[in-house]
């Protein structure tokens, strides 16, 4: 894709797992990057990703329009990475996905921001039974109503050092003798590497021909949930069992587990996440994706060993068990 010269880009949610990679990809291209997040102190580690003065962190509550306006002042482009995986108090899917996205889109339109990239998720649909997926679809519609030329990026499950996917189950496996195969473990995923997602977002931010298009991002391999757990078992050298758990039982467990969010503890599983697991999370047939952005996807087998070693007994230098 052809690219235009960079200027100032505001990255909402730029201090997170995907956001930090996006900031680095933009900085490498010469953008001045304004990282807008609730806790600017959490973005301190990114200062070495650019030249002196190239990166700026600002406090922004995306549910407050005045904060969003301030964060976008003088910006040429904006990227919305704000998202949550579970609800807690006022941090609801509607507030942080739908209303925040509308705030950002309206502020972009009012401030003359040329390019808006909206990060959604594969599975976003107004027909979904998941509150998360419903809110992601509603956010896409809210953005496109205001800025029809916005670019929508829908990744599958994102993996990489610091992810909340492989790391979560590997941590559980280090404490439990067995892990549940929710719904029998046959739900399909297309895990995509975080660096590939960041590069796709960076390219979509500058490519004129990306305007108004939707890209679904998936890795080179489709895996079942059981495949993922077996990968973790192989790379962590832990011989944990796999026990089938029907969806109805998993939903009940998720409903109870979500109660921990009330006291500020991230739940291991929520009912809504179980509902998501009842549908495959893969790139739709005919959808545009990494290839259209000129990116060769990185396989999970090439990256996972570089950080799953920390869950081995004995760490990085632990010897593989005899076959």
From TrEMBL:
It holds the Pfam family Epimerase. Residues 9-218 form the NAD-dependent epimerase/dehydratase domain. InterPro entries: ComplexI_NDUFA9_subunit, Epimerase_deHydtase, NAD(P)-bd_dom_sf. It comes from the Bacteria. This is 3-beta-hydroxy-Delta(5)-steroid dehydrogenase. It comes from Brevundimonas denitrificans. The lineage of its organism: Bacteria, Pseudomonadati, Pseudomonadota, Alphaproteobacteria, Caulobacterales.
